[in-house]
Amino acid sequence: MQMRSTLVLALVAGGTSIAAEPVPVALQAPTHGCGVACSHTAAMNQAQVAGLDLIKAQTFWSLRPEDRAEVAKALEARGERIPMLTRGADAVHPKQAELMVPLTADEFEVAFEKIERFTDRETFASFTPLQQRMVSNFAEMATGPDWMPVAPCFTPGTPFEYIELFDSIVSYGLSNGTSIQFEQTDRWLGTALDPSGGGQGNPTILTYSFPPDGTTVPSGVGEPQGPNDLNAFMDGIYGNRATWRGLYDQIFATWASLCGNTYILEPNDDGQTLFNFPGVSGVRGDLRMAGKFIDGNSGTLAYNFFPQNGDMVVDTGDNFYFGTGSNSLRLRNILLHEHGHGMGQLHTCPVTNSKLMEPFINLNFDGPQFDDILNAQRHYGDPNEPNDGSGPATNLGSFGIDSSTTVDNVSLDDDLDTDWYEFTINQTSEVTARLRPQGFLYQAGPQTNNCNEQQPYNPLLFLNPGVEIIAGNGFNVLASANSFGAGEIETASASLDAGTYFVRAFGGDRSGDEIIAYELDLDVDFDALTISQIDPLPTELEPGVGTSFNINISPDGENLIGTPVVSFRTSSSGAFTTANLTNVGGTVWRVDLPAFECADSPEYRIQATGDVDGTKFFPATSTQSAIVGEFVASFDDNGQVDLGYAVTGNAGDGQWELGVPVNNDRGDPPADFDGSGSCWLTDNTTATDNSDVDDGETVLTSPALDLVSGSTVSYAYWFNDIAGGPINGDSFRVQVSTNGGSSYTTVRTVTTAQGVWRTESLVEGVDYTGAAAGQGRLRFIANDIGTQNVVEAGVDAIVVRAPECEDPVVDSCNAADIAEPFQILDLADTDAFINAFLTSGADADIAPPFGVLDLSDVDAFIAAFLAGCP
Predict the structure, then answer these.
(1) What SS3 state is found at 235?
(2) Phi and psi, residue 504, nearest 5°
(3) Residue of 602, 580, 588 whose CA lies nearest to 531
(4) CA distance 294 to 493
(5) Local structure of 663: helix, strand or coil
C-alpha cells in the first residue's frame, strides 16, 4: 500500500467508527468496535465525534479510486465500514454532491449528443446534472460493440421520463427479442456447475459469491467506476455479516422455491473486476453480489445484468437501505427484482403495484407475484422440473385409505411440455386426478411510452391442458381428460388395484408457445366397506309392534368381519342393546327393531366391520332418532285464509298482508311457495311498485299454537332485494314464544338475500322448549333499518306437527272367567289343574267355573284351554 493510503487508513480506522444508521452529524456516536484511540473516544463529546467522522469521510472520498480500493480492502479486513457522510434523512454521499455540480454548456452539448436519438433536448434538460451524466454515459455504453445488457431498479418518485429513457436505451442495445407474452431476454445457457445449460423450460444451477471490498466495479448504468464496498456498507447497517448475507441467501431460496433453478453459495471470490469474468467453481460465482456509489439518494437503487452475466450492484450511496422493517422488505424486494433481471426478465408495465418486475421498487407485497413467477417458469420450468417423463417423475408418495394431496405453483411452459407425477396406493381405490388451470385477466406489456401500451393478458386462454392416469409401466393410459375448453377444470378417474401409477399433465389440444399455470389435485378414495340405505330409515314407530327394514352392506375391497349388528336404546340416557342383522341375500341385510312404548324415545345405529378400514356406522356421525307414534299436524296454514295473525311494527311502508303475489319485479316473489295461490307478503299492492319494507320493521304474529314437547315447526320464507347477496344492516328474523307471547326468543336471523323461496325447520329441544297447550306463538319480522334500498319478504306453508301415541291394550282373555291360579290358560296350567284335582277334598273351595273339583271339571278345563283367546 502506498504511504498516502496507509496514513488515510490510520485516520479512518482509528478514533471512532462510523454510525450504522444515518443520523444528524451532531448526534452521531460510535456504534461498534474502535482502534487504538478507543479510550480517547470514550471521553469525546458528541460534537467531537461527529467532527471526526466528517473528517474521516471527507478524507476517504478525496482519495484516488485506486487508493480508495486499497483502503476499502484493509477496512474490510479490520471489520470496519467505509466512511459515509450522512445528515439525517437528507444523507448525502460525497460522490453524489460531486456529481450534482451542473454541467457546463459544452459538457451539456457533449452529453446530449450521446442521447439525442432517444429523447429530446427539453426532456434531457429537465434531468438533474447527476441524471444527465449517468444517462448519457449509459447511452454511449449501450451503443458500443462490447455492451452487456443491464437493467436498473428505481425508487418511487423517480421521474418516469428518466426511467423510460433508460428502458429505451436497454431495448436499443438488446439484440434478442422477447417471448410472445413475457418481457424477457435470453435465459442462462451455461453456468459454472451446469456448463451445457438447458433449453427453454429447463432448470439450471447458478452459484453466487461476494467479491471482497475494493474489487473494481466498472460503470454499469453510466455511473463512474468505483470500488466494491458492499460488505462494509451492509455491515454498518446490520452490525454483522451473517445477518445481511442471510437475506441474500433468502432471496435466492425464494426464487428456487418458485422455479426449477438451484442456487448454491460459492464461498470464494477472487476479486477479479466485475462484469467480465464468468463463474468458475471454487473461484467465483456466476452471480457476483457487489455494491458501490451509483447516484446516491433517490434514482437508481441497484442494477443487474442479464444472462450470461448475472452480476448485481446496489447503490451504497442511498440511505433507502437503512430501512430494515418487515425483515428488511426493502432490501429483499430489491434483490429479488434485480435477480429477476439476472434470470432474463425485463421490466413490465403498467405500474399498478401488482408485479415485482415493474420498474419501481414496490413494498405493497413480499416477493414475486403471479406474472413474475410465470416469467421465471417460462425460462426455467417449475420447482418440480425436470419431470418430463416416467423416469424423472415427481414422487407424490404412498397413499393410504381416503387420502389426497395438492400440487401447486406448477406449470406447463409450452404445449410440448409434460409433467409426470408418480404415486403408490396400497389398497384397491378410486383415484381422481383433477387439473385446475390458474390465472386471471390483467394488463401487461413493455416499459415504453409512459407505460401505457400494455394489453389485457389472460394466461388461461393460450393452452388447453389435459390430465391422464397412466399404468405403472409408463405406457398404458387408464383414464384421460381433455374435453373442456381452455381455463376449465379437467378430471380423470379410474378404479385401481394396489400398486404404483403415474399422473401426466400435458399441453392439450391447442398448440402454442405459451405457458399455463395449474394446480393438480390427487384424491384416493379406498373401495372400503360401505353401509347405505335401501328402505328409508324409520322415524315413526308403531307402539307395541316390532319394526323391520332392509339395509345394504357392501364389503367392496374388504372382507366382512363377524355379523353386522344394530344397537338400540329406549332413550338418549339409556344403555344400548345389540342385535344381529339377518342376511336376506347378497349385500342386503334385514334390521329388526323391537317393539317400543309411547314413553320411549328410541335411538338406533347400524354397524359393520371390515378387515382393512375397521368399523363403519350408519348413520355415520350420530344415532338415528325416532318417535313412537306419529306426527300429526296441529296447525297447517297454506296462506289462503287469515287464521288469526296480528300485524304490527313501526315500518313506514311495507307491512305484512295476505294475498296473491303481484310480482313487481323488484326482488319480490313471483308466486307463493306451495302453489296454493296466496301467502303472507310485505306490501303486496298493485297501486305502486314500491312494495318493499321501508324505514322500520313489520311483525307478523301467529295465533295461539300448541308447541308441546317434541313438536316441529316448518315454514317457507322469502327474503330478497334487487341485487341479492348480503343485505347491509337489514334482516329477516323468526321468534318463538312459549308463554303466550309475554316474551320471545329469536331462533333464526337471515341477513343474506336470495331470489328464491327457502325452507326452514325448528326442532324442539334445539330451537325452543315445549309450551303448554295454546301458549305457543311464532313471529316473523322483516326490517329496513340499514342502508339497503329494497327489502322484500314473504312467509308461506307454516305447519306445526306434534307426536301422538297410544299404547295397545293387552287382551286378557279368560282372565275374568277363570280365577287363580290359572288366569290365561297355557300348558303350565295343566299341571296346576291336575295337582288341584288330586289334592282337593269334597269341600275344597275352587273358584268358578270349577267349584269343587270332580271328573266333570276335567271336561270344562279342557274346553277352556282349547278355546284360547278370542
Answers:
(1) helix
(2) -120, 125
(3) 588
(4) 59
(5) coil
Specify whether the CB–CB gap between 99 and 317 falls below 8 A: no
In sequence order, what are the residues at sequence separation of 6 or more whose Cβ sits closer than 8 angstroms to the Cβ of residue 64?
Answer: none
pTM: predicted TM-score of the whole model, two decimal places: 0.58
Within 10 angstroms of residue 179's Cβ, the number of other Cβ atoms is 17
Sheet of 418-425, strands arranged across: 394-399, 418-425, 499-506, 466-470, 477-481
Strand order in the sheet with 547-554: 530-533, 547-554, 588-593, 582-585
Question: How far lies 693's CA from each of 646, 671, 723, in Å?
Answer: 17, 18, 16
Query: Which one-letter DSSP state was computed for residue 393?
Result: P
**Phi, psi of 27, deg, nearest 5:** -110, 0
Which uninterrupted H or E stretch holds 254?
Answer: helix 241-258
Q: For residue 525, what are the contacts with CB-CB under 8 A and spacing of at least 6? A: 402, 429, 430, 431, 432
Reported as half-sphere exposure (CB side, CA atoms, 13 A), residue 36 has a value of 4
Burial class (CB in 10 A: 0-12, 13-18, 19+), 835: exposed
Nearest to 69 by CA among 179, 189, 174, 213: 213
Please spell the DSSP secondary structure of 417-474, one letter per residue.
-EEEEEEEESS-EEEEEEEEEE---EEEEES-GGG---EEE-TTSS-B-EEEEE-TTS
Per the DSSP assignment, residues forming a β-bridge with 605 are 567
> Under a CB-based contact definition with an 8 Å cutoff, are residues 322 and 239 in contact?
no
Among 106-115, 230-239, 501-510, 705-714, the minimum mean pLDDT is found in 705-714
Is the peptide bond preceding residue 350 cis, with omega within 30 degrees of 0?
yes
301 in helix, strand or coil? strand
Question: Any bridge partners for residue 631, and if so which?
Answer: 803
Q: Locate 609 and state its grid cell.
A: 366391520
Amino acid found at 497: D
Which stretch, 523-532, 665-674, 697-706, 853-862, has highest mean pLDDT? Answer: 697-706
| DSSP symbols for 151-193 | EEEE-TTS-HHHHHHHHHHHHHH--S---SSS-B-------SS
pLDDT digits (tens, 9 = 90+) for 495-537: 898 899 999 999 876 666 789 999 999 999 877 788 999 988 9
| Element at 62 (helix H, strand E) | none
C-alpha grid cell, residue 633: 299436524
Angle (CA) 539 540 541, round 5°: 115
Q: Rg of the chain over CA atoms, in angstroms? A: 44
C-alpha cell at 451: 407505460
The answer to whether residues 271 and 216 touch, using CB atoms and an 8 Å cutoff, is no
CB atoms within 10 A of CB 286: 29
Three-state SS string across 493-509, please? EEEECCEEEEEEEECEC
